[in-house]
Amino acid sequence: MLELYYDKSKIEAGCDEAGRGCLSGPVVAAAVILPKNFKNEILNDSKILSEKKRDLLRPIIEKEAIAWGVGIVSPEEIDEINILNASFLAMHRAVDKLKKTPNLLLIDGNRFNKYKKTEHVCIIKGDGKYLPIAAASILAKTYRDDIMKSYHEEFPHYDWNKNKGYPTKAHRQAIRDFGSTEYHRKSFRLLPEQLEIEFKPDPKKKKK
Questions:
Q1: Could you count the other beta carbons within 10 Å of the beta carbon of residue 134?
Q2: What is the pTM of this model?
Q3: How many C-alpha atoms does 21 have within 13 Å on its Cβ side?
Q4: Are 165 and 148 in contact (CB under 8 A)?
Q5: Which partner from 73, 95, 185, 202 sits 20 to 30 angstroms from 165, CA to CA?
Q6: pLDDT digits 0-9 by tens, 36-55
Q7: Residue 12 half-sphere exposure toward CB, CA atoms < 13 A
Q8: Beta pairing class for 104-108 and 119-123
Q9: Which residues does 207 contact at the CB level (< 8 Å), separation at least 6?
Q10: Based on C-alpha coordinates, what's the Rg of the chain?
Q11: Quick one: CATH architecture of 12-151?
């Protein structure tokens, strides 16, 4: 059973990110403040829930949360500041969008760059321990999945509607066959045997 709060006396926002280990696409984070009486028997770490359950939970979280926000950091920004700092920046951007100011941030993981003067606590595997972090993991994951599905419409060869940018065998084979795209993270080693992959525009890419 996940805990609803870390310190009941404080306004807590759970924070989590999605897409850190991907070869393409943005890193997306969410911050969620849940009411003290919030209950949901399904809500858990997004990684252990089916896509159907995540999609079911998202509107519930958005409706019942006191406040929620989503932050996005682009592949270009990831290449510039590295993925760890990009993850922190995405969380900061998510907190920026909260309509209510928290005085404690519950961070999934073991590291974080301090957000302004707000107190924070890092919790390893926090998305499986605290409901606000689990809620943030759901929003981060579903919003990022939607982005990758839209990218798939432009570049269908990479199967982003299925792998969401993670380094699957099919994804890496597509990089071998077609090169990288504008959505790939150039600072990542896209293929084990190559250090650099040139961008090759997809001739079948739909024009906007």
A1: 28
A2: 0.91
A3: 5
A4: yes
A5: 95
A6: 999 999 999 999 999 999 99
A7: 24
A8: parallel
A9: none
A10: 18
A11: 2-Layer Sandwich (3.30)
